[in-house]
Design brief:
By secondary structure, the protein is mainly α. The chain has a single domain, classed as Up-down Bundle (Heme Oxygenase, Chain A), CATH 1.20.910.10. Helix 2 runs antiparallel to helix 3 and helix 5 packs antiparallel against helix 6. Bound molecules: fe (ii) ion (FE2) (2 copies). The site of one fe (ii) ion (FE2) has 3 residues, from loops.
Length: 240
C-alpha cells in the first residue's frame, strides 16, 4: 500500500464516523447547527495562515514543486473567509459575536504547530490530510446549511452561503487534495527516503505518514468535541 492510500484509509475512518453522525440532522436544534457553522468558519479564517506557513516550510524541499502548489492554494483561498463571513451574516449569523470554543482554539493551534514543525515531509502529510478532510467538511456543511435554511425559511438570502460550499465542491478542494497527493503517490511508507523524481522532491515517507496521522488525530479530537457540544446544545434547546 502506498503512502497516499495509507493516509486515505486513516482519513476515511475519521470521515465516515463523522459523516454518520450528521447523516440525520433531525436530532439537532437549529441553534446548535448554526453554532457548528460558525466553528467551521474559524478554520476558513485560519486557512490562509496555515497555507502560507506550510509554503514557507515547503521551501526546505529540494525542488520547488510543493511550495508552488501550496502558494497556488493559498492564493486561491485568499478572500474566501471574508466571503464566508458575509454569507453567514446574510442568514443572521455574526461571527464577531461568537464565544470562543476552547476545543476549536486547541485544534487550530495544533494544526498551526504541525504546519510549522519545519520538517517538510511531515508538513506535506499534514496538509494532504487536511485538504482531504476539507472535501468532507464542505459536503456536510452544505447539508447543514440547507437544513438550517429550510427550518428558518431563509430562501434567497442564503444563496451566497450555499454557493460558498458549492464553489468549494466544484473542484477547488478536490484539486488541493489531488495536487498534493501526486507527491505521495506510489511511495512506500516504510522507505526511509524516497529520492527526487522529476518535479517531486526527495520525501521521507515515514515523516509524511506521521504528519498526516497527527493531523487526523487532531481533526478527530476536534470533531468529537464538536459533536459533544452539538448534542449538549440540542438537549438544552429541547428542554427549554
Ligand atoms: Fe476556500
Ligand atoms: Fe483546500
Amino acid at each position: 500500500m502506498d503512502i497516499e492510500t495509507a493516509i486515505d484509509r486513516r482519513n476515511g475512518e475519521f470521515i465516515n464516523n463523522a459523516k454518520a453522525q450528521l447523516a440525520d440532522l433531525a436530532p439537532y436544534s437549529t441553534d446548535a447547527l448554526e453554532w457548528l457553522m460558525m466553528e467551521h468558519y474559524q478554520f476558513s479564517l485560519a486557512n490562509t495562515r496555515f497555507l502560507a506557513a506550510a509554503a514557507e516550510v515547503a521551501s526546505g524541499f529540494d525542488t520547488p514543486a510543493v511550495n508552488k502548489e501550496l502558494r497556488r492554494n493559498c492564493d486561491e483561498e485568499d478572500g474566501h473567509a471574508p466571503m464566508y463571513k458575509v454569507a453567514l451574516k446574510d442568514v443572521g449569523l455574526d461571527v464577531e459575536t461568537r464565544e470562543e470554543f476552547r476545543s476549536t482554539t486547541r485544534f487550530l493551534d495544533r494544526i498551526g504547530e504541525l504546519c510549522l514543525r519545519g520538517e517538510p515531509s511531515a508538513m506535506l502529510g499534514t496538509m494532504f490530510a487536511t485538504e482531504t478532510a476539507a472535501v468532507f467538511e464542505h459536503e456536510v456543511f452544505r447539508d447543514v446549511t440547507k437544513e438550517v435554511i429550510a427550518r428558518r425559511g431563509h430562501g434567497d438570502r442564503a444563496a451566497p452561503l450555499v454557493h460558498y460550499h458549492d464553489m468549494h465542491l466544484s473542484g477547488i478542494e478536490q484539486s488541493h487534495r489531488d495536487e498534493l497527493g501526486i507527491f505521495l503517490r506510489g511511495l512506500d511508507p516504510a522507505q526511509p527516503l524516497a529520492p527526487t523524481d522529476g518535479e517531486r522532491p526527495s520525501i521521507r515517507p515515514p515523516a509524511a505518514l506521521d504528519g498526516a496521522e497527527q493531523a487526523i488525530a487532531a481533526m478527530d479530537a476536534w470533531w468529537s468535541d464538536l459533536f459533544d457540544e452539538l448534542r449538549a446544545r440540542s438537549v438544552c434547546a429541547a428542554v427549554a
